[in-house]
Amino acid sequence: MNELILLAINQEGQAPGGTLGALMPLVLMFVIFYFLLIRPQRKRMKEHEEMIKRLKKGDRVVTNGGLIGSIHALTDGELTIDLDGKTKVRVVRSQVNLYAASGDAAPAEKGK
User: Fold this and answer.
1) Which of 33, 34, 42, 100 has its CA 20 to 30 A from that of 91?
2) Element spanning 88, H or E
């Protein structure tokens, strides 16, 4: 009788695939999560940072808030955007979403 109880306890304690088999679904989920979410987001952030560095006076921009205008002045952290010739707005540099170089007609997303 005692032998049957010990045999049942030993069989319940062992996982069918061992420890590696139990961790494989978690590892697989992380790999999928990385390639579908983390990696593309990092790429978009890098492209946005490069676009922010390329801004110069006279470029036409669209902000995340929807303001459309041309850059009047630049500092390290801010832009002054000329909206209609009379109105100038200070905007945090990282809030620029799209831009077109000075010679282009309308703001367009670069690199896409």
Assistant:
1) 42
2) strand 88-92
pTM for the full predicted model: 0.65
Whether 109 and 96 have beta carbons less than 8 Å apart is answered as no
**SS3 for 58?**
coil
CA angle in degrees (0–180, nearest 5) for 46-40-61: 45
Could you tell me which residues come within 8 angstroms of residue 100 by beta carbon, excluding any fewer than 6 positions away? Answer: 59, 60, 61, 106, 107, 108
> Which residues are paired to 70 by β-bridges?
60, 82
Whole-angstrom distance, CA of residue 68 vs CA of residue 96 = 10
Which residue type sits at 36?
A: L
CB distance 80 to 90 below 8 Å: yes
The first and second tokens of residue 51, run together, are 């676009």
Q: What is the CATH number of domain 56-100?
A: 2.30.30
pLDDT digits (tens, 9 = 90+) for 53-111: 999 999 999 999 999 999 999 999 999 999 988 999 999 999 999 888 776 555 555 44
Residues near 56 by beta carbon (within 8 Å), at least 6 away in sequence: 71, 74, 102
